[in-house]
Amino acid sequence: MNGDNRPAGEPVPDELTALQEELRSAERAVVRRTDPGATALLVTGFMLVLLVGLMLPWVGYTPGWALLAGMENQGVLVRLFTFTALGFGLVISALALATRLWALAWLCAVGCGIASINGLWALWTRQVGVPVGEPGPAFGMVLAVIAIVLLAANWARIALRR
């Protein structure tokens, strides 16, 4: 006798083999998914705040979307933050919420963490390393940094919940 109460050497019926494969595939699909629960509403709200931050002025009177599009040059770090904030904070976050894949939740947690470091670094350099007469960071950049830090914390909470 083996583990499934059949005599050794007796073949497994095809129906049971197909059922066993179906159960294994269902188990793999459940293991790869995450359920953000009520945190999904927070993530969506922070994504909206980040989107509003991209519309507001970041440096002087230049909005974040203009820095993203390359219409103005305010430094490499500010531009890097616009790309990482848009990529991880909006695009991949939307994909992770739509698909609920655990791997994308981890990617958002790590990516938003990197984007928050980029944002804090860009904010700091615009406050400290700006030549005299050049504008410093504006409200939109500060709002975007706060939103991306909160997104990183919430995505880490979702990813670690599994």
From TrEMBL:
The keyword Transmembrane helix applies. It comes from Pseudonocardia thermophila. This is Transmembrane protein. Keywords: Membrane, Transmembrane, Transmembrane helix. The lineage of its organism: Bacteria, Bacillati, Actinomycetota, Actinomycetes, Pseudonocardiales. The chain crosses the membrane at residues 38-56, 76-97, 104-124, 136-156.
